[in-house]
Amino acid sequence: MPNKKSHSKIACMVAALALAGPTAALPAADFGSLQKTIKCLGASAYNGPYLAPIQWPKWTTGLNGKFMHISDIHIDELYKEGTDPAGTMCHRPSATNAALNVAGKYGTLSSICDTPQVMLDATFDWIKQNTADVDFILYTGDSARHDRDKTVPRQHSEVLNEHKIVVDKVISAFDTSKTKFIPTFGNNDELDYNKMAPVTDPIIANLTQIWAPYKLGLDENQDWLNGGYFAYEVKPGLVVLNLNSMLLFASNVLTKDCVVDGSAGAGMLTWLRNQLSQLRSAGKKAYVMQHIPPLDHSGKKLYYPTCHTDYTNILGSFSDVILGSFYGHTNKDYISYVYTNNTSSPQDGPFFISTVTDTVPSIDFDNTCILHVSSQGPSIIGENNPAIRVYSYDTSRFAFGGLVKWTQYWSDLVRDNTEDKVTYELEYTTQQAYGLWNLSPLSWTLVLQDWAKNSTSYRDYLKYRFVQNPNPVLKG
Ligand SMILES: *[C@@H]1O[C@H](CO)[C@@H](O)[C@H](O)[C@H]1NC(C)=O
Ligand SMILES: *[C@@H]1O[C@H](CO)[C@@H](O)[C@H](O)[C@H]1NC(C)=O
Ligand SMILES: *[C@@H]1O[C@H](CO)[C@@H](O)[C@H](O)[C@H]1NC(C)=O
Ligand SMILES: *[C@@H]1O[C@H](CO)[C@@H](O)[C@H](O)[C@H]1NC(C)=O
């Protein structure tokens, strides 16, 4: 429904913007930029949770206002230091050319190798010591190793065991009855690579058992048991909608495009719309998560065409309810934004989605309202440097669940191997690096206006895209 709030609300918001305070060097000081966003203030995305970018008094006690996002662990039980990455995926040494045997103890940057157990152990040791105070954790999947080594094809039992290894690490670090851990599966997490049946794939029953220590009630959740997706109210008023991206993913040959009558992807997106309508009526907010994002780092679409359009329309038309969307899969750090060119009725669409790539963004800000910005989290696997994200979210009554910033921690894998120890450290925060006072569509719009001028903050975005890997692998 169009959200035609009075001008006094807009005036109040502009006043709040002016008072936003000294968090960082704000591009908002440029009133020309602000003016270009005023036409969008009628869009519901800019109201409600993000009405004022100031910290209200705490509403709920017992919350620290932080949650963690981790992704793509890809544990490999066969990984061996000193083996040949390119020829054997870090499983065996080359007998003929010792110079090829460069696999590092903690992983091999820019290779096609997976993650050794010692890296997973070191990562969870760090998590235990440094992020014990998060309120909950989102895990966007891919626990199992890739099935790339033809000499040792992946067995079903191995896939299940790799899921268990991850569960063991999580429950060693967190009391999952207090700190909720919300997992999903990636495209490598099925019994067979990239293959998930549209209804009740066998991996679902297996994961219902393996994930039981997370205490999410999955054994009684019909959405999960049938479709591999579920809703979980992670804090009162804040619901995680955890999708099965295999039902949208164009590389899953067992499913069909959402245009096909009765397709599982269309069924899930209908479920998603129904959930969001109910949350809207109840005045609750949502975070959406899934393994595969709609777009990769270069802007390439990863879903079936109609699934892509339908999902984009949901992000746009429910941008007042969906406060964040979180993805894994690409092992990269980038953002995508959902926008409309209908500035007279932004909430009516049409909606489009784009990724900020290595081309300076060119957006017609006079005729665009940005309604949602999704963030693509990096991975533990060493394709790029390993990284972990901690989000801050608003715990006040008026803006509950609104994303304030993310703080990214990374480990320099080459240095870890040289020093024979893993050191996670602060990489950047969105406040320091980009001057974002919060992660609302409005704040992002002001930053994108700055990036469109090829600013130093945009150059920083490009540096962080591959988690400071100087030689990234640029396949999809
Ligand atoms: C995995 O699920 C299949 C199909 O439901 C079942 O036959 C098998 O026993 C399960 N395996 C484990 C280890 O739970
Ligand atoms: C918005 O974009 C669509 C698709 O490109 C186009 O057909 C339409 O004319 C545009 N509307 C406005 C108001 O620019
Ligand atoms: C914008 O939305 C309004 C209200 O739904 C609609 O009448 C109008 O055609 C839309 N404009 C464009 C360019 O799509
Ligand atoms: C952006 O700035 C960088 C660094 O100053 C420069 O190398 C690059 O050519 C610029 N790109 C454009 C499109 O202006």
From TrEMBL:
InterPro entries for this protein: ASM_C, Calcineurin-like_PHP, Metallo-depent_PP-like
SUPFAM superfamilies: Metallo-dependent phosphatases
Signal peptide span: 1-25
GO cellular component annotations of the record: extracellular space; fungal-type vacuole
UniProt-listed GO biological process terms: polyphosphate catabolic process
Domain Calcineurin-like phosphoesterase per the UniProt entry, residue ranges: 66-303
Record-linked PANTHER family: ENDOPOLYPHOSPHATASE (PTHR10340:SF55), SPHINGOMYELIN PHOSPHODIESTERASE (PTHR10340)
Protein name: Uncharacterized protein
